[in-house]
Specification:
Structural class: mainly alpha
Strand order of the largest sheet: 1-2
Largest sheet: 2 strands, parallel
Number of strands: 2
Radius of gyration: 22 Å
Distance between the termini: 42 Å
Strand content: under 5%
Length: 243
Amino acid sequence: MGNDDASEMGFLDHLEELRWRLVRSLVAIIIFSILSFGYIDKILVFLLFPTTKTSNPIVLQSLQVQSMFLIKWFISFISGFIISLPYLMYQLWSFVAPGLKVNEKQFALPFVFFAFTSFVSGIIFGYLVLIPFSLEFFSGIAAPHVENNFSIQYYFSFLTWLLMGSGLIFQLPVVSLLLSAIGVLTPAFMRHYRKHSLVVIMILSSFITPPDPISMLIMSIPLVLLYEISIGVSWLVNKRKAN
C-alpha cells in the first residue's frame, strides 16, 4: 500500500510540476505579447509589406468594426509566442529532463538553441519565399475586371498559417535531436525510410503551399534538405552518446 501511495504521489507531483510549467509558459507569452503590442504598428507594416510587391495590386479591407483591434491583439499574441519560444523550449526540456539519463541531459542547451533557431529560420523562409509566391499566385488568377480586395482578417489568418506552418516544419531536425537523445531514432532507420519520407514531404508541401507545382517544388526542396540534416543530427547525437 505504501508503495502504491508513493507511486500515486509521484504521479501527482509530476502533474503539479506540469501545471506550474504551463502557467510559467503562459505568463511568459502574455508578458511578451503585451510588450509586442507596444510595437504593433511597426509589426503590421512589416507583415503587410509583401502585399505591395505583387504584380497584381492587392487591396486589404477591414470589414468589421472590431477587426483591427482583434487583429492587433492576435498578432501581438503570435509575436509574444515566438519571442518566448526559447523559454517555452526550456520549460519543456526541464519537465522531460528528470526522466533522462545523465548522458542525455547534456543535450538541453543544444535542444533549446536549435529549436528556436530552426523555428525562426522557418518563419524567415515563409516570409521571404512562401508568402511572396503565394500572394503572386492567388492575386494573378483573378478574373478580368475583378479587383483583388481581400479581407484583412483572412489575410492575416493566411499569413499566420503559412509562417507558423513553415516554422513547425523546420522543427524536423529538432525532433530528430530529441528522439535520438532518448534512443528512439537512429540514422540507419531514417536512411532506410528515406524514399517513404519523400512521399510524405510531397504531401506536406501540397497542404502548405498553393495548388501549383512550382510552389510545391519550392517547399519540397528545403524539406528534403531538412530530412538530410535530421539524419546528420541523429548521427551526431548517437555518436556522442556512444562516446
